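Usage

Read records sequentially. Each one opens with the input sequence:
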Amino acid sequence: MAKEKMLRVTLVKSMFGRGKKHMACVKGLGLRRMHHTVEVIDTPENRGMVNKVAYLLKWEEV
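and closes with the structure output:
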């Protein structure tokens, strides 16, 4: 089985005052607080969440 592509995602801006859907995307990615970094599988669903809140994140392919 081939190794799955991953995305390393870090929350760099505060979620304070953001919309409910944007907060749900950040939580769905597994981010809990500022400067928290997680690795998620590179799927269309995760890419969509990253694209929606890209202004809050720093991300890179791993």
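Summary fields computed downstream for this record:
- The chain has one domain: 6-61.
- The chain has a mean pLDDT of 95.
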